Each structure stands twice: as C-alpha cells, then as structure tokens.
Amino acid sequence: MMKKTEKKRLSLWQKWALTILCGLLFAAGAWVYCEKIAAPVCSDSEARVTLKAEGYNFDTVMRFYGDEGLQILEGLKEELESPEYLERTARAAGTDISPEMLREKLRYEKSVLDAENRTIEITASWPDRETAAALVSAAAREMEQLIYAGAEDEGATITEVSVTAEARRIWPVTGLYMILWGIAGLTLGFAVFSRQPLFDTLLVLLFTAFTFLCVFPFYYLFINTISDNNLVAGGRINFFPQGVHFNNYARILGERDLYNALTVTVIRTVIGTALMVITSAWAGYLVTRQKMWKRSFWYRALVVTMYFNAGLIPWYTNMMMLGLTGNILAYIIPGMVAPYNIILVKTYVESIPGSLEESAIIDGASTFRVWLRIILPLSVPILATIAIFGAVGNWNSFQDSLLLMSSRPELYTLQHRLYIYLNQTTSINTEQISEQMAQNLMNNSVTTKYTIAMITIIPILLVYPFMQRYFVKGIMLGAVKG
Amino acid sequence: MLKTKRTAPVGEEVYAPGEKAALRIHRILILLIVMMVFFPPFNLGRISSQISGNLTVLTSAASFGTTTTKLGTYMKEGSARFALRESDMRLSQTGCVLVLAGAALAAAGACLSAGNRKMRRIGALLPMAGGAAILGGTLVNRNAFQNMDAFIRSLDYAEDHLKDVALSWPAFADAAWKAGAVLMLVSAGAAALYAWRGKASGKAEMPEKYKLFFMFLPVLALSFVFAYLPIYGWRYAFYNAKAGDELTRELYVGFDNFVNLVNNSGIRMDILKVLRNTLIMSGLGIATSWLPIAFAVLLAEIRSSRFQRGVQTLTTIPNFLSWVLVYAVALSLFATDGLVNNLLNLIAGGSVSKVNYLNNADHTWLKMLLWGTWKGLGWSAIIYVAGIAGIDQQLYEAARVDGANRFHCIWHITVPGLLPTYMVMLLMSVAGILSNGMEQYLVFSNAYNGDVIQVLDLYVYNLGIGNSQLSVSTVIGILKSLVGVILLFGANGISRALRGESII
C-alpha cells in the first residue's frame, strides 16, 4: 500500500520542507504587514527615554534601594507624574497635549538597578511615535535635573549622567503576529501537503502545542542559566540565550551546601536503588514459590502496606524510635522493600515458563541458585524498569529529607536544597537590606535558583531517552494487577 | 488461593510427644524478645533521662551519636560540664550490642527450630548462647552505669553534675531483658532436651516450605518495621504531647483529642476548611480523569507513528520531575520576573503591571489542577495508549465495512475498550480521595494561599511538624488512614460487584 501512494505523494522530507516553507511565508507576510504597511501608522509604537546615572558609590546605591531610597525613588516618580512637570514637558516639547492625557499615557514603568555596572536606568514610554519624539528630549532634560536633585539630596556624587533617547517600534507585536501567522501557515501547509483532513491537522496542532508546553519550560530555564545574569535579572531572556556563559554552573557546583546535597543524592540514588532492585528481585521471585509456608498470607501482608499507612506523625516517631533521624541510612533502608515493585517482579516472573525453573530444581539447584542463574538473567527487563522508577524516585526524594534531617543539614537531598533556595526571597523592594544581605542577594539571585533547578533536572533528562522504553513496559505490567 | 501441594518434604520428622507445643511456646517467647528490640520502653541503654525516650535498644546499640545527642557536652573532657567518661558510655553501648546480638542469635535459633532434629539441636543451642549474651549485656550495662555514677560522685560539684546528667537506671528494661533471657534459657533447655532425646541422622535440613519462608523473612521484617511498626505511634493520639515530650501518665488524656476535633470550634473550623480543600482538589482530579483517555484516543487518530511516539516521549517528561522542580519551573514562568510577565509586557509595550501569579490566592484550586495535569497527563495516557494498541483491529475493520466513520469507531469500539481500565483508575482515585499527597501543596503554599491550598496531608504535616502538635496531628492521621481503608474496601467491593474482579 505504501509503495503505491509513495509515487503520488511527496516524500516525508519534501512534505515537511514545504510545510515549513508555508509557515515561514505566512510569518514573513506578517512581518511585511507589520513593519512595512502598518508600522508607519501603527499606534503601538513608542519612544523611550533612558537615563543612566553612573557613579553612585555602591553603598549609596544600596541605600537608594533600601527603604529610604525607595521613598526617594517614589518621590521622584511622583514628581515626574505631577501635572506641573507634565505641563512643563508638554510646553517644552511644543505640543498641546493636556497634562491629564500626558499622565495617562506617559509611563515610568521601569527603574532598573544594576549594581554591577553601577547605573540606574529609568525608562519612560509614550505610545505615539511622533509626539514621543518631541517629548523625549524635553522629558530627558527635565528628568536629568530631577535625578541630579534627588541624588544631591541623598548625598550621592554623580560623576556622569548620560541621556539616551531613542524612539523605536515595539518588536514583540510584530513577533506575536509572526508567530500566530506562522502557526496558521504551518497548519495550512500541513493540511495541504500532507493531504490531511482539517480534523487531523488540528489534532497535530493540539498535540504540538501541548508538547511544546511540556518541553519549553526546560528550554526556558536552561537559556536563563547560561545567559548574561544581568539580562536574566531584568527579565530580558525570553526565547534565545544572550551572552552565553557557564559561570553559574561552575559557581553553584563549587558551593559546599550543594556539593554535599549532590553527593548525598547520588549516594542514595545508587545504593538505594541497587538495594531496592535486589530486594524486589529476590522477594518477587520468592512469592511465586507456591511451597512457601503461608505464602499468600505473607504476600498480602506485604501488599497491604501499599494502601495503608499509619500516618505522617507515627511514621516520623517510628523513624525517631529506630534512630533514623539525621542518619543517612534513613534514605536507603526504608526504601528497600517496595511492594509495588515486588508485585511487578512477581507478575513478570510468573510469565516466565516454569519448566526452566522446575528442571533446575529437579537437578538439585538450591533456591538461591535458581534465582541467581535462571530467574535473574531472565527478568532483566523488569529489573531495569523498577531500577529506573527507583532511581528517579530517589533522585526526586524530598519529603524524607525535609522531615528527618532537620538536625543534619549536610544530609539534605538536592531537592530539599533546591526547595530552600526557591523559598529564599529575592525581592529587593520589599525588604530593607544590608550590604551583606545585598551580597547574598547577588549570589542567590534568580539565576542561582534556575541553575540549581537545572542541575537537578539535567540528569533526569539525560537518562530519560534510555528509560523511556522501559517504563511503558512497567506501567503495563502494573496495570495487569490494577 | 492455590493449595500448596504436599510433596514428601525433607525433614518431615517424628516429633516427640509435646515437643511441638514446647517449640511453639519457645518460638513465641523468642518472637516477643525480638519485638522488645523495637520498642522504646525496653531500651536498656537509656541510662539518663537526657537520652530521648523515643529511642530503642537498636538505636542505643547502633548509633552512638544519636544516643548521646544531648549528652555530648558532658563527655568533653576538660569542659566545665564534664561529667561522663566516653569510655563508660561506650561500655553501655557494648552492653546494648550484646543484647542485640543475643536477640539475633535467639531469632536464628527460632528459625532453625523448624528443621529436622539435627537442625533443631543447633536451633536449641543458639538461643542458649543468645540468652547468655543478653544476660551478659545487662551486666555490662549495669557495670557501665555504676562506673558512671561512681565517677560523677567523685567529681567536684557532684550534686550539680548528677542533676545535669540525670542518670537514671532503666530498671524496667533491665528486668524485662533479664526475665526474657532466663525464660528463654529455660525454653531453649526444654527444646534441647527434646532435640537430643531421639536419634538424629543425616544432614541438618529444613522442609522446603520453611526454608522459603525464612528466606522471605528479612523482607517481611523490613516491611514490618517500616510499615506496621509505625502503628505503635498511634499511642500519641491518646496523650497530649508536643514534640520531644515523653509520654508519661500525666499527659494521658484518653479520647479527648478525638472529641476535641468536634468540640473545639477552632480545630473544627480548620478541619472543615481543610476537608473542603481536599475534597475539591480530589474532586477536580476525578472530574478531569477522562482527560488521559481523550489524550490517548486523539493521539491514536494521528497517522504518523513517529509523531505519536515523539509526543508520547516528550509529554511524559514532566511526570519525572519532583514537585519541587515543578515549582521551580512555575517560578521561572509565573513569578514577577517570569516569562509570562515579560511576554505580556513585551506585547503590551510595558503597560502591564507585573504580577506574581504564585503569590496570591486567586484560582488556587484551578492552578493546582492545571499543574497536576501538566505533570501527569502524558504519563497517565500511556496506559490507555497501550490499551488502544491491544484492541482487536478486526473490530475496526468490521465496523468500517458496516459504514462506521472515525467517530463511530472511537465511540463504539475504542472508548468501550478502555472503560474497564478507566473504571479501575476511577475507583482507585475515589478510594484515595483523602490523600492527595502533600508535596505539591507544600511547595506551592505561601502566606497568601494558605487557606485554600491546605489539604489534609499538608495540614497533618503543618500541624505535627510545623506546630509540633503531635497528638492532634496523629488523631487526624489515624482517622484519615481508617477512612482511607474503608473507602478502599468499598471501592474494591464495588469493583467486585460490577466487574467480578478486585482492584487490590
């Protein structure tokens, strides 16, 4: 059937090339429309004035952003938005826009503190290009004076003020149009060139969208960890990395807390998983042996623990009773007996023809020998499956660390560390901060969070392709038992 | 279940009259002694009230550090508080190790007592050695205690030191171990007498069924220790205990904690709120539990198998992330400086004020549902994807011959084929309606959404660990466990009635 149709239809690569071409064409069309046809009259355009006040010494800058500094900044903003100022600006620019309207449209929405470059950047925008161009220079002059006054009040010395005024079009609107039209083009191209009914095309679109949602966040996290930290802090990295560097990773891996957490997590993942797999393999085989004394009773007693647990606090006090709080064994021993995995192995072993085992037993092989020589080699696929589940579970473990290790922070798992880092506040506007805290802030900035998250995710993503073919088998075997 | 076949077992020996009964008593005795290892009242090593009353002899033997957490400062030679020699503490630990070893020997002996006569002989000797070890252990421990007492009294400010270190002789544990050891020696003696009465020929052997059982026993023991032993912690429910408290007679309150759940209006309000959150979130999960089927069915409609596999592979990735990582992702997308805010601002030209979508209580239930869906949809669909692959293709062909279109096929063949699996999943999620786990809600909870995000599991955690209200927290945990079991059996009953198959 395939051969017949292949001659009529385009080959896979041609189909996709044409589809993508179609998408690109649509996107290009959108670009042409936005940039060449609509742009000259586009009311979305805006002008920005950017003021850079350089030369604040660091202390002052930090103070500027402490509570007092915030007040000054607020005052500055208020002043900039006051009718008198706006009117002055309008007059200076030679327009007849009313102050009310100005206040509505002129925005000082961003004030970025860049401690590394020791600049303060204030951005204001105005949505109409022509008026903006006129307003920009006037506004810039006024703001420059205000900044000087504000800084003098603060006792800061400004060595250099540079005013840059630029009027530019908002790119993302064009970008959005391009993306949407591009998707429309791809859809249409797919429907036409792959000769799919519209329903199928929409399905493909739907699944592509969901898949994108599942994958993009990782990409986004990743590009944020390798991009220039200042750009990341300013929220400038959205789709493509800029100023690529890997210092974040080097820095994070050098941190003692994280290094410890990584070691602990790797240890528990390797040893814990290995022991769990061996135990499950052994127990899963034994429960298939009908001869065992009161077999079904013990098996049930084991399986019931999957559905029943005594509760969090009794579990916690039990661990305390056994001396497993603040003890790395708490990561390994309790996980050794995993009823669900034992069921998986049992189900699998039951599917192995019994004749092999029987003949070995008749030949006088001991139970252990039968297990080691016959059952174990044959059940490698299911063992791989549970090993993967176990390893991921161990790697992701968080609760036991949170509950049991409060006395031994050096035994925190990676996830627990990450949790702690994620919960550290980095908002500089809401807290009064000392210089020490400011320094910590730099280190624990948003990039730090992202980088730790990435370090935690990367191993999972790396082994993911290998484990993928196993877990489908695992979940199916599990479904047999429900 | 299946009947075990009786083949001619090894070591089906003639037991002397009365031997079986004697052995049974012997084994029960040893079982009790082994149990003593896991319960704190029998902690022989608790020679000071500075040692936590929640530790067992197992801990005293295995972990010197845990035992002496609070005593550490008293063991620093030369310090002002120095009142204990480490060697004495070590000696006490050695006593505990001996006791532990004795219990282990006894356990081994009890196992061997299921064998043939030859094996029973060894099996009778081991508990004797074990009993001796236990007695020796108690003596060593006693010796260590006396050393410590004498040493402290020899120091200046002996009174202060005695008060600080608070030496106290674990009289009950000591007596219990001694009595246990003596009784065991007696019963082991009786077993030995029986074992040596008749002739023992051939190798020491055990019937296959017991051999298999004893090989399985370590697994059962671990399962017991970590899954059944916690039930012992239920006793907290009958005390008014905070974290770190000893459960003494004064703290005993009977069923007050249970009654308080209803009578105390503060707790009652809390619980009603938490139950509401729990039921709503579980309810939303159940209400959207058909999504994976829809996902699988629609995915199967796509003809390119490469595309199918790609989608399946990529959409299962989020399932392998922990909730902490999901939260990290959420943070990167929805925090004040996150992608969503950035994009909105880019599109609107900077006119949108930035909102931290995570730090508010709006639509929390919906958000939690969406995150759960994002994480789990692709994964939950796998089982249905495989289910679709298992449906007989002839059905579709026959239907098509009869003029059915795609939607007919989906509705009349695919969906009915998946329903049995779906029913199992549905019943399981109904049975687990009270346990939606705490990790997701813990990581997403903050000062703003505490009221609406707190589910039962998280409440138990916050109450027990956060506020150290061990007792109330335990009570809620117990009730939750019991309701959970009832729901599970209910669901199982329904499943049996409807499908003739049990789900557990």
Kindly summarize this structure in a few lines.
The complex is a heterodimer of chains A (482) and B (504). Chain A is an alpha+beta fold and 482 residues long.
Keywords:
heterodimer; A: 482 residues; alpha+beta; Alpha-Beta Plaits; MetI-like fold; 2 domains; 4 strands; 7% strand; flat; B: 504 residues; mainly alpha; 66% helix; globular; disordered N terminus
Uncertain parts of chain B: 1-11
Per the CATH scheme, the topology name of the largest domain in chain A is MetI-like fold
Q: What's the domain count of chain B?
A: 2
CATH topology of the largest domain in chain B: MetI-like fold
Overall mean pLDDT of chain B: 87
- Give the SSE string of chain A: HHEHHHHEEHEHHHHHHHHHHHHHHHH
Percent helix of chain B: 55-70%
Highest CATH level, the class of the largest domain in chain B: Mainly Alpha
Number of helical segments with 4 or more residues of chain A:
23
Number of separate strands of chain A: 4
Give a short account of the largest sheet of chain B: none
**Could you estimate the helical fraction of the residues of chain A in percent?**
55-70%
- How many angstroms does the end-to-end distance of chain B come to? 15 Å
Bulk shape of chain A: flat
The largest contact between protein chains, plus residue counts on each side, is:
A-B, 113 and 114 residues
Instruction: Quote the distance from N terminus to C terminus of chain A.
Output: 39 Å
| Helix/strand order of chain B | HHHHHHHHHHHHHHHHHHHHH
